[in-house]
């Protein structure tokens, strides 16, 4: 049994073959080297994702210099809270040791982020006060030491 | 406030109920809508041309050439809205060289390549099937 | 007669053999140049397989995590770009649910519903679920987002074409297009910190320890211990995303 093959078909096949080989050749040069090493991605990108600088140093870095604060903090309810929760990113300060490179929070709003009364906060999770009734007009740190909140200053 | 994000602030001010913050910005906009419109034009014009040639509808003979040319010319620009919608259009070739087999978008790129090749050579050599 | 029969079948045999050999050759050629599939090698068992736990009962909505995340990862400060954010759910006595997330919770929350109308209220911190079968990886056309050997879903910023498919595929709304880098961006579980032996920024600063991360392979580890002792749930389990972010005390109102 013999099929009639129109003369266009071989021509088309040749054109396709040329096109596909060109594509494969181009592809050979364009695909990144490490692509497909671990899966359908560029393995070198794992290294790229490790590159960014850190901004938060972790509290071990803080305690290397501020041993006194660690001792103070350990005695009271804020012992579990890491330094950078309130003081913000510390890597710059760790490197420079300058006071202006670290954030020193103050004000009722800042403490209120955790301690303001809110129905969504469990009573057991955090001690809450009503900012509109509790010593209005005074800054929290006038009475409380944030490192040792129950050691009143007066 | 950065004026670049003004429209997002406007949407935020007018939205009722809750929407995930990352989803306030509409990601696929007018360009994505233009693309199927153009491919629709291509398909329609191509079918019109094929009516005359394949199905021998003689009354459509005057439209054959213009229909086929319309299909070809819109076909050439059909991907432009898609490519200009990419944030990194210079990397668009990656979708051809490393297509992810589970992604509908990557596989459709190959469908489009085939369609493009087929309609160009298919129409000039007179093969229509 | 018999001779001819054999000759025909021999020709047929040769023809078929050539076709099979050609197909095998073609397959081998395609496979070696990896045209169609990049088969993943088996996962390295020696590496950790990270999972996350968020304890809703411990979250007090202070916003430290969302703020720290923006500082650590240079996320734009506008309220449309978050790698992690906090939502406050308030179920009223009439059954309606009120959800708010002002600036992702970074500035803290103010109770908007009077206490006497509240049936219950709670905070839900949201972040990338680092799904094992994630929809965002599935739809990425070029392989610019992937599951790292540690089970962290990462983005290749040098390879992403910015098609925004993944942003729409994520059922948790955890992705966005970075307005400066012009590529997709998401939580990396602070991969750069994990590799240096530090905790992710959000977990470093959480004052109540509501967020935890750990190795799911380590059956005696803290995370697996927590999962054993508590009833946890993932978000949108019906989507079968293989989410590795487990919520303790998750309420059904959360979406």
Q: What is the CA-based Rg of chain C, rounded? A: 25 Å
Average of pLDDT of chain C: 88
Biggest sheet strand line-up of chain C: 9-1-11-10
Strand proportion of chain B: under 5%
Query: What is the CATH third-level topology name of the largest domain in chain C?
Result: Alpha-Beta Plaits
The global form of chain C is: elongated
Distance between the termini of chain B: 58 Å
- Give the averaged pLDDT of chain B, no decimals: 84
How many domains of chain B? The number is 2
Q: Largest interface: which pair?
A: A-C, 44 and 62 residues
**What kind of sheet is the major sheet of chain B?**
none
Q: What would you say this structure looks like, in words?
A:
The complex is a heterotrimer of chains A (154), B (129) and C (255). In chain A, 22% of the residues are buried. Chain A starts with 7 loop residues before the first helix and ends with a strand. Chain A is mostly helical. Chain A contains eight helices and two strands, in the order ααααααααββ. Among the domains of chain A are: 50 residues, no CATH class; 50 residues, no CATH class. Chain B has two domains: 81 residues; 42 residues, no CATH class. Chain B is mainly α and 129 residues long. Chain B starts with 5 loop residues before the first helix and ends in a 5-residue tail after the last helix. Chain C has two domains: 35 residues; 162 residues, Alpha-Beta Plaits. Chain C is built from seven helices and eleven strands. In chain C, strands 9-1-11-10 form a four-stranded mixed beta sheet, covered by helices on one side. A three-stranded antiparallel beta sheet of chain C has the order 3-2-4, covered by helices on one side. In chain C, strands 5-6 form a two-stranded antiparallel ribbon. Chain C starts with a helix and ends in a 7-residue tail after the last strand. Classes of the chains: A mainly alpha (154), B mainly alpha (129), C alpha+beta (255). Chains in contact: A-B, A-C, B-C. At the A-C interface, helix 1, helix 2 and helix 7 of A face helix 2, strand 2, strand 4, strand 5 and helix 5 of C.
